[in-house]
Design brief:
The chain has 209 residues and is an alpha+beta fold. The chain is 16% helix and 41% strand. It has three helices and twelve strands; from the N terminus they run E-E-E-E-E-H-E-E-E-E-E-E-H-E-H. The strands form two sheets. It has a six-stranded antiparallel β-barrel. It has a six-stranded antiparallel beta barrel with strand order 7-8-11-10-9-12. The protein is globular. The mean pLDDT is 92.
Length: 209
Amino acid sequence: MFTGIIEELGEVTAVERSADAARLTVRGPLVVSDARHGDSISVSGVCLTVVGSDAGTFTADVMAETLAMSTLDDVAPGRRVNLERAAQVGDRLGGHIVQGHIDGTATVLSVNDGSAWRVVRFTLDPEHAPLVARKGSIAVDGVSLTVSDVGGGLDDGWFEVSLIPETLTATTLGDRVPGDRVNIETDILARHVERMLALEPALTERSAS
């Protein structure tokens, strides 16, 4: 489990591809300072398992499902990534509960600067639209954010987040421009509610029979 509070900006230094997987090497001295084999590290919102590490880098395998669901499908050496170690029991939960299980990707539609913040609008696929609400939580490239606005319908949905200067400088979100893809993870509570509502008719029918 993660909190969506980014600890470090890292960089992908190597990518080894096979037919249906990839092995990434990522530079992140802080997050590997106490990393052990089998530990979880969030890489731009994707929970990856450490299979090797040294003083400044760690290596992780990415399976086909993860490549298909995230922006890691076209990752290349030199890409900056947001890094966060798994939360420890007793840590302050500064963001929200983030699993590192990506729902899919969204595309930046617009970027508008205010006097002390930046409003970024993203696409919202029909599959994810019911799970995103104004003032709700969402993780974008692993960053815990509050949805400042949401609109459109199932086929033209969008959501916005308002980014403070700290978020712009401490994460990769400060580099995002229209057309860029990002990883999104909707709120776990919303996902459970959606599942319960989907099963409710069948459960009601069973209990009545």
